[in-house]
Sequence to fold (328 residues):
Amino acid sequence: MNKLDELKKIIESQNDFAVVSHTSPDGDSMGSILSLYNLLLDLNKNVDVFVEGQAPNKFSYLNGFSNIKNINQSKIRYDCLFVLDCGDEDRLGDCKELIDKADIIINIDHHITNTAFGNINIIDSKASSVGEMLFELYKNLGYNISPKIAECLYTSIASDTGGFKFSNTSSKTMRIIADLIDIGINFTSIYYRIMDLKTLNGIKLISKVTSTLKTYLEGKVATIKLTKQMLEECEATEDEAGELVNIARDIENVEVGILIKEVDLDTYKISFRSKDYFDVKDIALKYGGGGHIKAAGCTIKNKTIDEIENELVSEIKKAWVKYNEWSN
Ligand code: 5GP
Ligand code: MN
Fold:
């Protein structure tokens, strides 16, 4: 039986589903999990959708947002767990325990670093987003894509393509977007909310984060930092400020932008972005993280923020040899 038939059989024969994505969910995670939540409800299935901690309010317009659960509200057992847009089990954070609670794990992802931890693994590193993969999957399985599902998928794809401008945007991506628009969604409003809208406190946070900017390696690497104190002072959450790491990447001549974010005592989450050619995933992998060539991340513990910054810059300098720069 091919994967598609196997998947269809599972969806049709099972009743209790759980859907989850990685910690600190982004637009692709939120759109993907809520699209599947809505689809399974349309198929009259029991379904719980999970996020670790608080789901980003930015996506509150998506149908099903208010039904998102935390792990402490989960059932004892599920027939099937869908893990979406998540490269490995550890990235589920608290929600990792769902893996042990479900009989069948279905892993659908587009990260090249995915560890294929599911019973069924559908991985396409060429897809712009999991939203793009799900659109095709729903179509191929013969399921109806309602406007509320289409809004979720549009959110996923627009988010992970940076508003259809990253190089992961293909003609296929745009054909899917055309189909989603034809289903009848308010795409201008969604695009504005996910790409441009910021709160006043978010702007104050951008100002603080930008003031930490440093450049290295002849201006090809830029770092910025976000501390818990900044969040407290601005009374803002990170998602109110948009994609902070882009501030570093988008500077002229910068190839690699890095955001070092304090998440706990001596624990920092790193976001890497490259502009044209540098493979940031290789750097993230060295620290147990992962991602894509131009967008990757990892968590580093038990080092100071300055030690991390210096170490990352020197790792990047070493890696740059393969691009024939600073090879001396
Ligand atoms: P972000 O910087 O937005 O958190 O993540 C950028 C990309 O790298 C996303 O595709 C994300 O899923 C991936 N990523 C971020 N952090 C980690 C991590 O710790 N492990 C893995 N495997 N992937 C990560
Ligand atoms: Mn994604």
User: Anything to note?
Assistant: The chain has a mean pLDDT of 96. Residues 22, 26, 87-88, 91, 111, 113, 271, 289-292, 295-299 surround guanosine-5'-monophosphate (ligand 1) (CB under 6 Å). The chain has two domains: 3-196, 200-323.
